[in-house]
Write a structure and sequence with these properties.
18 helices; single chain; 373 residues
């Protein structure tokens, strides 16, 4: 989360929200008529370009200006900073061109999402529109999006390689998976959970034992101060870790007001509700679902489980909880697309999810109007 507070003119916010609601209603129309699954590839490419443009210029979060500061600082000479080495070097080589930086980082992330979806034989347009609609503010605000995209691209490629029995190429997806760590240290968590794609969750005993295992891992990571393990030992990283720890102990990210209660309920429900739909669909049709989808579901299940344990261990919303939970937005979007495409989710379920999304974003916009007065 960013500490930088910049007052954005209401007309700029209105443009972004207007574009969002236009896409929202087009998505609803396309879903209801199932036109979205019949559109040609040029529509997918057009939306991909639109999505990347939004990602480049999205400035409604303080992180936009924090990254701008980092890029400008690294444009003349390399210096140690609080972002990963790869971003520092990128900022140095492009000479502080912030729009180009965002195009490479966030635009690259969106392209990798499309590639991952393609590898899973899922409708790319629906997936991109779904992640745009459901996770609009989360997918374009942090550099971790690129790291997550790299990781899940590696996972989807690994699943594809295993499914096609092209094991001589298996080193490539494994390298991609480990490379994600260099783009955000929190990917260590996902890398540790990667073996879960081979654990058969269709057996209740296996599922139960896996939940216990992830609970033990979550407790161990908590006791060892997991954030310090994910950061280098230089002075600035230690300062950042200490700040996070103080915020957690002081309850800065606790749910302590009516406004944060409502916002948190809506925000986190957008992860748990679709995951619940996916779980019901997968559990009811386990034998009919392709092994590739089942493997992706397993990693999603593991991340959700660990994230939930973080919440209950602290008894409140912490950086551990929401950062781990946000890692599921890509697999959830892919899996939800599969369930809709295969008619495993009912229309009422999707309509309920879309209503929650609409209310959440509408309240966000109303809050922006209220704060501007």
């Amino acid at each position: 989360m960013s500490d930088i507070q910049i007052e954005i003119p209401l007309w700029i916010e209105s443009i972004f929200f207007a574009l969002y609601f236009i896409v929202f209603f087009l998505f609803v129309k396309g879903y209801n008529d199932r036109i979205i699954f019949r559109l040609k590839r040029r529509y997918t490419f057009s939306f991909l370009v639109f999505f990347m443009t939004i990602a480049v210029f999205y400035c409604l979060d303080g992180d936009y200006f924090r990254y701008k500061m980092h890029v400008e600082r690294a444009s003349d000479v390399y210096r140690p900073d609080t972002i990963e080495f790869v971003y520092q070097r990128l900022a140095y080589y492009i000479r502080g061109n912030y729009n180009l930086f965002r195009l490479i980082v966030w635009g690259g992330a969106i392209c990798l999402m499309a590639i991952s979806t393609r590898l899973m034989r899922i409708n790319v347009l629906f997936m991109l529109m779904a992640i745009y609609i459901i996770y609009y503010e989360k997918v374009v605000y942090a550099r971790a999006t690129l790291a997550m995209s790299i990781y899940f691209c590696g996972i989807c490629y690994l699943i594809y390689i295993i499914q096609k029995k092209k094991l001589r190429y298996i080193a490539f997806p494994i390298i991609i998976i480990f490379l994600s760590i260099f783009f955000h240290r929190s990917m260590v968590m996902l890398v540790l959970l990667t073996p879960s794609i081979f654990v058969p969750l269709e057996k209740k005993n296996t599922r139960f034992l896996l939940i216990i295992l992830w609970g033990i891992i979550a407790i161990a990571l908590t006791q060892m101060d997991v954030m310090s393990a994910l950061m280098q030992n230089d002075e600035e990283y230690e300062t950042k870790y200490e700040k996070y720890s103080n915020h957690i102990k002081g309850g800065r990210w606790a749910i302590d007001s009516l406004k944060s209660v409502v916002s948190s309920l809506f925000s986190y429900s957008l992860f748990y509700i679709p995951f619940f739909y996916i779980t019901r669909a997968v559990s009811s049709h386990w034998r009919q679902i392709p092994i590739s989808i089942r493997r992706l579901y397993r990693i999603c299940f593991s991340v959700i489980t660990v994230s939930t344990f973080f919440f209950f261990l602290y008894g409140r919303v912490t950086v551990y909880f929401y950062r781990t939970l946000f890692m599921t937005m890509i697999p959830i979007s892919i899996l939800l697309t599969y369930c809709v495409q295969s008619r495993l989710c009912s229309q009422k379920q999707i309509q309920l999810l879309l209503k929650i999304v609409f209310v959440f974003m509408f309240l966000q916009y109303m809050t922006s109007i209220y704060n501007s007065n």
